[in-house]
Amino acid sequence: MSIIKASNIVSKFDERLVHDGISFEVQKGEIFTIIGSSGSGKSTLLKEMILLQKPFSGSIEILGYDILRFEEEEAKLFSKNWGVLFQSSALFSSLTVAENIAIVLKEHADITGSFADELIRYKLSLVGLPPFAASLYPSELSGGMKKRAALARALALEPSILFLDEPTSGLDPISSRAFDTLILSLRKALGVTFVIVSHDMHTVADISSKIMALHDTKIVFLGGVEEAAKCPHPFLRSFFDTK
Amino acid sequence: MANTDVEVLKTERSLYLKIKGEWRTSSFTLTQKRITDVLQDSENLLIHIDVSELTSFDSSAALFLLKLKKERQNIKLTGFSPPLKSLFRLVLAHTKEKQAAFVPHKKPLLERLGRHTYNKAADFLSYTEFFGSLVIGLGSLFKKENFRFSSIVRQIELSSVNALPIVALSAFLIGVVVTYQGALQLEKFGAAIFTVDLVGISITRELAPLLTAVVIAGRSGASYTSELGVMKITEEIDAMKTMGLSPLFFLVFPRILALTLTLWLVILFADIVAVMGGMMVAKLQLGISYTEFLNRLQTSLALKHILVGLFKAPFFAFLIASIGVFRGLQVKGSSESIGIMTTHSVVNSIFAVIACDAVFAVIFTGLGI
Question: Model's pTM, two decimal places?
């Protein structure tokens, strides 16, 4: 069953064409990674899927809803269906880690009190954070812990889709691989569908179930990891040959 | 989107609950309440909770059911589908250790009072340390490689010249207000002309210096703090240090010197504008012509009053600039800290200026100036 279906997306920055009619589908339970050189519009595409930007034309269907036609109120309600991990984590700096998660539970699900605490503790354990991290402020966390905390926040409502923007950027190789493992285990445990923008070649090769390569406004490759590694396109060659 | 349904079947000795449909975090609370309500006064009943018709669920539901089962012996959960079973296992695995509740952030009053007092004292000590480093730095400031002439000029433009419009507006209004109030009272005694003395002396000696210092503290002092604070967070200051460039000579001294060297000029400007405001009101309210006003001003306003006002300028300026810079360098960690430090900077420097002014008042009175 396809969770996301994008068709004929055209995006422009002023006059510069970023996407020239790209179409793709993401299936349930997939780890769908988007790669591309910088400036190829990976992040733009991600932002269009979570309604932070509007494409110039085209349509995006998520869970069967045409999200580009949503009214503001509908969009707000629908946003419960996805969680987003931003590149810079974007944890609220004036709140502790626990409060960062609690605010989502309270505002969207009206869960408060000791049950919320328990739920938060469970989420933190799920993303592999030690219990003491709960009462720390984002500025007191290391880069890897920040990403994990942000992931726990994205998971607060247990959305069916998680969008990750450069999940391993700024992490050392060991933390990066640990984060990859975490993504795999969450997919297995919760059945979440992942859409990941990354240029970490290891992440892409190790965890993707499907790779989409953007280059020069078009999709130059869409398929599994094995095929991608063999694809003769110069961009994919340079991407994989650095290994 | 909430469409969980709870079917209840009650017999004499048992309670049968069937949870149907979709039960996810976003629609969690309603169903939770419903179940808790149903389970009230059921201590002696055998309770079956059937989850076989849950089509969609997540960890909140699992965590809640697990907790329920742990708390009450008479509950039996039935109808697990394989995915639900694996979710239960996952939740169980991650909630094994019993943990204390989150530590509340609010500490007891006495502790907060103690910490606060200690922090204030520590702040003051580190300010004196900063002051010390400035004095030491002063020794090598006038070496050619340390004296940043162009940054000083740039800072003079930013912190003094660009402040002139707002200083002029505030000074003009203060001149107007003081004259107006003075005229109202003095007119009653037929001493309207003494308004000129009042305005001339109070403005040049006290009001203009103080007002200008407050405006500059809120404007330029605050901008020093936030500029340096941002540089601290983006690690620009660290970068500078690693390149062997001293932040003291590149960032700190230009700002302090710029303000210390030029604040007296800004105050002089404020003196003039405020007196002009006074002249205008004197003419409109009391019918004192400009010539008359200036003549009276010349005889009543001794030069010493103006000089006393201007003499205080470098001290005020130093306090404002050094506190602004000091607070900026104290910024740590998050962007929130910039806001906090900027507030501290403005509050501290305005207080310091007023305290300094009071000290001068005592000294000058003692000296009979």
Answer: 0.68
